[in-house]
Amino acid sequence: MYRLVDFASRLVNATWFEYFIIAVIIVNGIILGLETSGAVDRLYGEWLRIGNEVALWVFIVEAALKILAQWPRSWRYFRDGWNIFDFLVIVFALVPATGQFAMIARLARLLRVVRLISAIRDLRLIVAALVRAIPSVGHVIMLMSIVVYIYAIMGYHLFHELDPARWGNLGLSVLTLFNIITLDNWTNVMDTAMRHYPWAWLYFVSFVVVGTFVVINMFIAIIINSLDDAKRERPPEIEGPVSREQLMQEVRAARETLERLERRLEADDDDGNRPSHP
Question: Distance (Å, rounded) from C-alpha 194 to C-alpha 207?
């Protein structure tokens, strides 16, 4: 059993195995895309379905090997959130693709493409940085909401008679400002206002500067800072797989070191308790 566990540990920690899983995920994603083509599905539909089944079995074997590598504490596999995600992808993929569950099964297969995030360490790092940035991003969203709300009310009072399609009420004003934030043809909105109010450029330029250049850059700065923090806190990666024999050798070496320290401490205590003669 120990040999089997050691083999599973070596396999799941091998670099080539990681690249193999990534390749399977990419190929499976391509297959899912080809299934959307009616012509391709008519010609190669059976082969595409076989490819999906093979990819699913590869993911099942991968999860089984990772669980086996943690034996006898296999439950440790579920301590990693990414492992839980991979396991749920397999569970959803086993939903029968018939009847009322057909649409759910088809959509669940798309999660296999998302598995590319869990398979690549750098992508996992980026996701961790985004999750870490959520509290700070929430404050920036509050600031952006206040700015948009103020400018929306101003835009309504200034331009609702001139351009009711864009500024007719508060909701339309907010949507117009969100369109301006994307910088998509925002000059057309400004030109329409400037035909009657030559000073209207002050309103639009100030909003673009505050809403786009300042607030959006704050989003980027927060995410970059979170990414740097996640990189610093990431544990160093072990180079190459570690076998059971290597771990046992390290344990024995540490045990021998502790025994030498204990003997030295006992010798020091004996010297300290020995009566001194004048």
Answer: 15
For residue 9, what are the contacts with CB-CB under 8 A and spacing of at least 6?
69, 241, 242, 243, 244
Highest mean pLDDT among 96-105, 132-141, 149-158, 190-199: 149-158
Q: Confirm whether pTM is higher than 0.70.
A: no
Tokens of 221: 């700065």
Q: Rounded distance, CA 201 to CA 180, Å? A: 13
- Contact between residue 21 and residue 62 where contact means Cβ atoms under 8 Å apart: yes
What number of other Cβ atoms are within 10 A of residue 259's Cβ? 10
- Report the percentage of the chain scoring pLDDT > 70: 85
| Number of Cβ atoms within 10 Å of the Cβ of 155 | 27
Cβ-proximal residues to 167 (8 Å cutoff; 6+ apart), any chain: 155, 156, 158, 159, 160, 173, 176
The CA distance from 32 to 53, in Å, is: 12
Task: Name the token pair of 274.
Answer: 């020995």
Q: What is the pLDDT of residues 188-214, one digit of tens each?
A: 889 888 888 889 899 999 999 888 787
